[in-house]
Amino acid sequence: MAEAKQQNSTMVEDFGAMVVRGINHSGRFARFQFETFLASVATCFSPKTYPLIWNQMLAIGVRSVPVVAVTGAFVGMVLAIQAYDQLAGLGIAEHLGVLINLSVVKELGPVLAAIMLAGRVGGALTAELGTMNVTEQILAVRSMGTNPIRYLVAPRLIACLFLTPFLIIYADFLGMIGGYLISVPYLGINGRAYWNFSAQGVEMWDITIGIAKGFFFGAAIAGVSCYKGFHCKEGAQGVGQACTEAFVGSFIIILAIDFVLVVIFKAIYLSMWPLQLLL
Amino acid sequence: MEDKTKNNNEIIALKGLTKRFGKTIVLNDISLSFEKGKTTVIIGPSGCGKTVLIKHIIVLLRPSSGEVYFHNQRIDDMPENKLEKVRTQMGFLFQGGALFDSFTVAENIMFPVQQHGTIKDKQKLNELVKTKLSLVGMDGFQEYYPARLSGGQKKRVALARAIALNPEVILYDEPTTGLDPIRADIINELILKMQKELGITSIVVTHDMNSASKIGDRIIMLHNGKILLEGNADTIKNSPLPQVQRFIKGEVSEKDLQSLQISFEDIKVNGKQ
After folding, report:
1. Among the listed residues B98, B107, B113, B105, the one whose alpha carbon sits nearest the alpha carbon of residue B136
2. Are the Cβ atoms of A48 and B83 closer than 8 angstroms?
C-alpha cells in the first residue's frame, strides 16, 4: 500500500518535472528565436556583415542546388508513372500534366525540397554550431565582445530564409521536366495536349504559394538547427543527439507549417476569388 | 588615506558572489578584489568552482546573488550589448584554447580586431598579427589551421588572440593543464612576460602548484566553493591546514584512500566466490 502510494507520488513528481522541463525548454527556444530575429534585422542593416551572409549563401544555397534538383526530378517522374494507369483507364491521360504539375508546384516540390534541406543544411548547421559549442568556441566569441547570435546565427538564418524559395523553384522546374519526360516521350501522351491542360490547370497563385512556403520552411530549418547546435550537450554523443533532434524537429515543423499555410492560403484564395472574376 | 590608494589600484572586485546550479552551490559568498598589474592565482582541486569563478569576472556566467565590479562599475547586471564593450577590455584564455577551427591562425587573431573595427587596413592587420604572434613566439605560423598545432602551440595562439585588443586584464583558465613540464613552463614565462612588459593584470586558475608559486603575486585557495586560504606562495606552503598540505603534496585524504581500499577488498571477495 505504502509502496503503491510512493510509486504514485514519484509518477506525479516525474510528470511535474517533465512539465517544468517542457516549459523551460519552450521559453529558451522562444527567447533564442526572438534574439535571432532582432539580430537578423540588425544584420540586414549593417553592410559590414554582408560577407558572412554571402559565405553562408554559398554553403547553404548554391551547394544544395544539385540535391534539391534531383529530388524534384524524381518526384515528377514517379508521379507520372503512378498516375498514368488511373487516368488512362478513364481515357483522360492528357490530364496527367495538370496532376503532375499542380502536385509538384503546390505541395511536393516545396515540402520535399525543404525536407532535403533539413537533412543537408540543418544537419550541417547543428553539427558545426554544436561542435563550436562543446569546444567553447561560441563562448570565445562572446568573451571577445561579439554577440554569437549576431555573428553565427543571423547570417545562417538570412541565407536559409532567402535561398529556400529559390531552391524550391529549382525543385519545381526539375519536377516539371521529369514529369514531362516520362509522360510525353516515354508514355506517349500528346505533348501539346499535356502542356495545354497544364496551363489551364496551374494558376499563378499555385506557383506563388508554393514558393512563398519556402520562406517559412527556410526560417524553420535555420531556427531549429541553430537552436539545437547552441544548446547541445557535451561530447560527441551530445552533438550527434542534437543533429538527430534538429532533423526530426525541422521535419515535423515543416509538415505542421505546411498544414497551417495550406489552410490560410485556401482561406485567402476563397476570399479573393470573387474579386478575380471582376478583373 | 590608505584605503583610498587601495581603491585606486583595484581593478576588479567580487562582492558576496554566490552561484547555484540547480540545488548545488558551486560558489558560496565569495568576496575578492584584484589589484591592477598584479598576478593572482586561484588554486584548488578540480570541481571546486575555479573556472566558474573566472567566468563570472567576464560575465560569461551571471551570479545567483552577489555583485561583480570592473573599474568600480557594476557589470554583473549589465545587458549583453553593454557588456560587449567591457569584454573588449579583458582577454580570456580558454582551457582548450577555443580557437576557431575554420579560421587560420592569422584570421583567429584578426577576429576580435575586425569585429570591433579598430583597424581596417589589411597590411596593418597583418602587422598586428605578426607582433602578437612574436610576443608568444609563434611568428611564422600565420597560415596554419588550429588542427595542425600541438596543444601548447594552440594555447600560445589563443593567448595572442586574447591580447589582440590590448586588454587590461587577462583571465587564464587552466593554462598549463595537459602540457608537458617544459611547455607548461613556456606558458608560465609568457604569463610573467605579459605582466612585466605589458603591465597586464592576470587572474590565473590552475591546479598546478609549481605554476602557481612561480607566477603568482598572490595565491587564493578555493575549497568547496569557499575561500580557504589567501596569501603568497610561502603562506600556502606553511599553512597547517590539512586540505592545503594534501593539495600541495598531491596526496589523497584518508577518507578517499579508505573508499579505494573498500572497493579493492570487494573485488577480492567476489574473486574468491
Report:
1. B105
2. no
